[in-house]
Write a structure and sequence with these properties.
Elements (H helix, E strand, L loop, with lengths): L1 E2 L28 H34 L7 H7 L2 H25 L7 H7 L6 H16 L8 H17 L4 H20 L2 H13 L4 H18 L18 H31 L5 H19 L8 H9 L4 H21 L3 E2 L1 H22 L5 H17 L2 H12 L6 H18 L11 H14 L2
Antiparallel strand pairs: 1-2
Helix pairs in contact: 1-5, 1-6, 1-7, 1-9, 3-5, 3-11, 4-7, 5-6, 6-7, 7-8, 7-9, 8-9, 8-16, 10-13, 10-14, 10-15, 10-17, 11-13, 12-14, 12-15, 13-14, 14-15, 15-16, 15-17, 16-17
């Protein structure tokens, strides 16, 4: 999910029915050549867009904090003066307010979130508004706003998927898929996770897994990752040791996962509230500076609040935080993300969700070791991150694969993480049907989406 502008009055309570032009199952099917040309074009543009946005992010963060690498943000923030913290976040707030004001006046139409576009607008997105919001997002996240930097390349990829569909005159059903795999290709490129990005596009955004859908999704993600490789290295995002897996770890996963599932429900509902609370009118200019300046003040004591959460998760995967710091960040980090989104700041929620899960896993792991020694807190944080990601996105398969690709470990933690993912996702679905990417949809729209998935299938 990406925040930034209100959806274009998605009053439709029912997802539009497919208008013909199914996704071709083989190259012999009618229109297959045009479809696959659109896939290649979408993947290429999504990859180049992710590379350009990564360069912009690095430039923004280096200009703001003196370091380009996201994993170096904490140390740079610790060395920075308190005035710099407040000034940068205040500046990000002013830029957010001004940027949103400009976008509403210089672009036609309202913004629309990718999931809503796929299900209720046949994948159609306002190109200039969406691209402008993506650029604004990547700049303010580089300045320290606690939202995800993956939101921008997802938006770029979705727009290119829509444009490629126009160019190749694809059907509405094909366009829905193209926009989803474009967004997944953007994520795949920015984090170098081709398999996870493709599965994320289908399982989370499109809501269907089938062979004729998997092949184009994989192709687009592969092309995007290769196209971005001149800027983004093909390397794991997180560096972790190979933790020993014992029966205690499986037991912890079973005991802790329901709490992670409940925490994910709270996070999804908080994000839904943030969407409803986003300002309009003159408050669109005033709210972001006020809220983000407070985040800047808090970051003087807790620099872990800054950025998308990548460096916080990395730290938790390696060693525990001090108990008081962990207790404070357990609440403050998700609250900072929710408050930033509520102020109108655009950005992604994938990495912030992962970081919130790592905090939860670390906290529950500390309690576990206090009463039942057995296991490593870093491993508990890792499993908690994967379980939280699955529960908030409602994408258990893609979340497991993404965690494997993000860490570069294919089997070391797969079984206990899968255990945690199943229990946490099942717990969350008992209470909340929405994923974090559906938080902007009404109850009627969520019900219509579920009904459409059951009726039409993939």
């Amino acid at each position: 999910m990406e925040f930034g502008s209100k959806p274009a009055a998605p009053g439709a309570a029912e997802a539009p029915a497919p208008t013909g032009g199914k996704v071709p199952a083989t190259l012999r099917d009618p229109g297959a050549l045009r479809f696959w040309l659109a896939v290649a074009l979408t993947g290429l543009c999504a990859g180049l867009g992710a590379a350009a946005l990564t360069l912009l992010f690095r430039a923004a963060q280096e200009l703001a904090w003196g370091v380009a690498d996201p994993s170096a943000l904490f140390e740079a923030a610790r060395q920075a003066s308190p005035l710099r913290h407040v000034a940068l976040l205040l500046g990000a707030g002013l830029l957010t307010g001004l940027g949103q004001w400009v976008l509403t006046r210089l672009t036609s139409g309202n913004g629309i979130e990718i999931t809503a576009a796929i299900w209720f607008q046949a994948g159609r997105l306002p190109a200039l508004r969406t691209l402008g919001s993506a650029v604004l997002s990547i700049v303010i996240v580089g300045m320290g706003v606690p939202l995800g930097r993956e939101g921008a390349p997802k938006q770029f990829g979705a727009v290119f998927g829509n444009l490629a569909s126009d160019l190749q005159q694809l059907s509405d059903e094909q366009r829905r898929l193209m926009v989803a795999i474009g967004a997944g290709a953007g994520m795949a490129a920015v984090y170098s996770v081709p398999l996870g990005g493709a599965l994320f596009a289908l399982e989370v955004l499109r809501g269907a897994l089938a062979l004729r859908l998997v092949m184009p999704a994989l192709a687009a993600s592969l092309i995007a990752v290769k196209a971005a490789s001149f800027v983004i290295p093909n390397a794991p995002l997180y560096m972790i040791p190979v933790y020993p897996i014992s029966s205690d770890v499986f037991l912890w996963a079973i005991v802790a996962s329901p709490f992670i599932g409940l925490w994910s429900v709270a996070f999804v509902r908080a994000i839904a509230w943030a969407d409803r609370a986003r300002p309009s009118g003159w408050r669109r200019l005033a709210a972001p500076p006020a809220v983000l300046a407070i985040v800047g003040l808090l970051s003087i004591v807790f620099p872990e609040l800054l950025g998308n959460g990548q460096d916080l998760a990395q730290a938790l995967f390696l060693h525990p935080l001090a108990p008081l710091a962990l207790a404070a960040l357990f609440l403050l980090r998700p609250l900072a993300t929710v408050a930033s989104a509520a102020s109108g700041a655009p950005g992604g929620l994938f990495t912030p969700s992962l970081a919130a899960g790592a905090l939860m896993g670390s906290a529950l792991g500390g309690l576990w070791l206090w009463v039942h020694p057995g296991g490593e807190i870093g491993l508990f944080a890792l499993i908690g991150a994967g379980a939280m990601l699955a529960a908030t996105t409602q994408g258990p398969i893609s979340s497991l694969v993404l965690m494997m690709e993000l860490t570069g470990q294919a089997r070391a933690f797969a079984l206990p993480m899968l255990t945690a993912i199943i229990v946490a996702t099942a717990t969350s679905r008992l209470i909340e049907r929405r994923s974090i990417y559906e938080a902007r949809l009404t109850d009627e729209q969520v019900a219509a989406r579920l009904a459409a998935r059951e009726l039409t299938g993939p």
